Amino acid sequence: METTQKIHPYPGLEQIPIIAVSANAFTEQQIEALSKGVVDYITKPIDLDKLITILSQYLY
Q: DSSP character for 59?
């Protein structure tokens, strides 16, 4: 989340989609991450099908 806040203020980088990967599935962390500019949130262990689905939304 800290990295997201440091990247997005730079001109030209504010539209970069950032996906958070975390070992925790706490709803509070997901809400905080989304409020800080993360576009999606996935927890470990990573479900590859879910990750591919998320990535396909942002890579076109």
A: -
CA 5 to chain centre: 12
Tell me whether the omega of the peptide bond preceding residue 17 falls within 30 degrees of 0, making it cis.
no
Residue 60 has pLDDT above 80, yes or no: no
- Single pTM value for the model: 0.77
pLDDT tens-digit series, residues 14-33: 888 999 999 887 888 888 88
CATH architecture of 2-58: 3-Layer(aba) Sandwich (3.40)
Q: Is 34 exposed, middle or buried (0-12, 13-18, 19+ CB in 10 A)?
A: middle
Residues 6 or more apart from 35 whose CB is under 8 A from it? none
